[in-house]
């Protein structure tokens, strides 16, 4: 939970794969505690993102058509304020299409 010593950063990704890469970087490179990182669909519908990736994109007959591609994926995390610039850069490198912080 955010308090005076944390900043909440949110990023939106087109694929679940990109969102998971962003989370992996937060935890492994920046030492963010996993319980302080949240992943959810942007809409109220279950979604694996809005674009095929990973196993969805590499199906033998082309992209799978049964993946629930119903919207983007949001990753949010409570981080130390001094990590903000580095985490923003990391999210951008992972493919974030929108970024905001509070």
Show the helix and strand layout.
Blueprint: E1 7-13, H1 16-30, E2 37-41, E3 73-79, H2 84-94, E4 98-101
Antiparallel strand pairs: 1-3, 1-4, 2-3
Write up this protein.
The structure is a single chain. The chain has a single domain (7-101), classed as 2-Layer Sandwich (Alpha-Beta Plaits), CATH 3.30.70.120. The mean pLDDT is 81. The chain contains 2 helices and 4 strands, in the order βαββαβ. Helix content is 25%, strand content 23%. The protein is globular and about 35 Å long. A 4-stranded antiparallel beta sheet has the order 2-3-1-4, covered by helices on one side. By secondary structure, the protein is an alpha+beta fold. The two termini are 13 Å apart.
Features:
102 residues, alpha+beta, Alpha-Beta Plaits, 4-stranded antiparallel β-sheet, 2 helices, 4 strands
Summarize the structure.
By secondary structure, the chain is an alpha+beta fold. It contains 2 helices and 4 strands. Helix 1 runs antiparallel to helix 2.
Q: What is the CATH domain class?
A: Alpha Beta
The level of helicity is: 25-40%
Named at the architecture level, the CATH assignment is 2-Layer Sandwich
Counting DSSP E segments of at least 2 residues, the number of strands comes to: 4
From the spread of the alpha carbons, the general shape counts as globular
């Amino acid at each position: 939970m955010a308090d005076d010593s944390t900043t909440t950063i949110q990023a939106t990704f087109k694929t679940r794969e990109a969102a998971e890469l962003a989370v992996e970087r937060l935890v492994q490179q920046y030492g963010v505690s996993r319980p302080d990182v949240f992943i959810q669909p942007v809409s109220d519908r279950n979604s694996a993102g809005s674009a095929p990736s990973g196993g969805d994109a590499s199906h033998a007959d082309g992209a799978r058509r049964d993946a629930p591609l119903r919207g983007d994926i949001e990753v949010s995390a409570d981080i130390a304020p001094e990590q903000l610039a580095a985490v923003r850069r990391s999210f951008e490198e992972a493919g974030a299409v929108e970024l905001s912080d509070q």
